[in-house]
Amino acid sequence: MVVTLNEDGFKRPPQALAPEDEAAIATPFVQHLVRLVRSHDTFGAYAKRPDAQMLADYIVTKEQRRAAAAQCGADPDLVWRVEQFYGAIGLMIEQETGLVASPMLKIYDEGFGRVILITGKLVVLTKHLRDAQRFGFETFAALADEGNKQIAAAVATIQQFPEAARA
User: Fold this and answer.
1) Per residue in 29-82, pLDDT tens?
2) In a domain, 30, yes or no
3) In CATH, what number is assigned to the domain containing residue 133?
4) In a domain, 103, yes or no
5) Are the beta carbons of 82 and 107 closer than 8 angstroms?
6) Does 10 map to a domain?
7) What pTM did the predictor assign?
8) What range does the domain containing 118 cover?
9) How far is Cα 92 from Cα 86, in angstroms, rounded to an integer?
């Protein structure tokens, strides 16, 4: 798999973003994800980087996905990206419901695992991960859509079982 990096070691985002990708980057979920990613930059070295460049590792083309299939296992950078993605979902759930949604993640060396988000005594989201080394999205719009879909499902679960969520 060939990935073009810039001088700082970051994956280059597509040169020109599609209008739907620009709109997706401006959505609250993606902005929460950007904030989480930027929060790990303790020295401010990436403060001037555009949001698209900060999230470029979440964009995985079909060719990159095929090449990743040959790899076995999940590297620490990938696990970190998955953690940040579900952490942003948890923050959005908290923003919408006022309840803290804590993510728990376990990815095994072989590339499979599970993510759950818990609010109170209620599991609001559960996702099995298969071929975690292929984790990513074709576009920023697909990233935003998947995040918003997971958030909506979790909020609906909280609304269905409010007493367990508040326990």
Assistant:
1) 999 999 999 999 888 888 888 999 999 999 998 888 888 766 666 788 889 999
2) yes
3) 1.10.3100.20
4) yes
5) yes
6) no
7) 0.86
8) 19-165
9) 10
Cβ–Cβ < 8 Å for 78, 156: no
- Listing DSSP states for the chain in one string gives ----B-TTSPBPPPSS--HHHHHHHTSHHHHHHHHHHHTT-TT-TTTTS-HHHHTGGGB--HHHHHHHHHS-S--HHHHHHHHHHHHHHHHHHHHHHSS--EEEEEE-TTS-EEEEEEETTEEEEEEEESSGGG--BSSHHHHHHHHHHHHHHHHHHHHHSHHHHT-
What pLDDT, on the 0 to 100 scale, is given for residue 48?
86
- C-alpha to C-alpha distance for 126 and 115, rounded to whole angstroms: 6
What number of residues does the chain have? 167
Closest CA to 154 of 29, 34, 27, 56: 29
